[in-house]
Design brief:
The chain is α/β, with parallel strands linked by helices. It has a single domain, classed as Metallo-beta-lactamase, Chain A (4-Layer Sandwich). The chain is built from seven helices and eleven strands. Strand 8 and strand 9 form a beta hairpin. The radius of gyration is 19 Å and the shape is globular. The N and C termini lie far apart (38 Å).
Length: 262
Amino acid sequence: MSWAGGGVGERATCVLAPNADVMTLDGTNTWVLREPGASRSVVVDPGPQIAEHLDAVAAQAGEVAVVLLTHGHADHSEAARSFAERARCGVRALDPRHRLGSEGLGDGDVVAVDGLEVRVVGTPGHTSDSLSFVLPAERAVLTGDTVLGRGTTVVAHPDGQLGAYLGSLHRLHALAQEQEVTHVWPGHGPVLDDARAVLEAYLAHRRDRLEQVREALRALGDVPDPDALPRRVVEVVYADVDQRLWGAAELSVRAQIEYLRG
């Protein structure tokens, strides 16, 4: 399923960055959020430093109250400072290195702009600074790279941790089970309209992969070079996956090995 962005619900527009590749899927989703009838907007993940993309975001956003970041990976955050300076607003993020201004952002915070309410949920695991943003009025959650619109995400070891990631998936699943969120608006790929089913599939996938890694470790036995072990596991567990993704898969495998040995 291809994805081109556009209007989503009553309060969001996705401006798709032209940085599509094997890791970013169709490109980075930059989200412009605005309460109906309001003049100011919230921009989530301005994305890469590509002039045509930032011009499109600016045209859609109009007056910007604040920029929010789901996490600090460059395909989401690279243009945050320059865009915010252009818009004369701040950047709020969990990691102080990505902020512009004195306000940070963390679990439990609520960002309110002209009637728009964005609730911050800490969802570490993909990275240690990963956040998700719940829009109660839309029953939607912006997940950054924690949940993607297609496929599954990488646990970016060593900063990313599998235990934390599983906890984040369970937390989002609880929100879906309680019907607080029914839609996933991801950082890459199309929107998903059955949040509970998506999160259950993500959790099942992680359980299956963990068992595959456990079996591969058992089959491989002692490997003379311990640092080569994750790559050997990738060659077994991800044999049917595009080899361009093996580097990312190795990060996840390292996180899984650490989790199993913890």
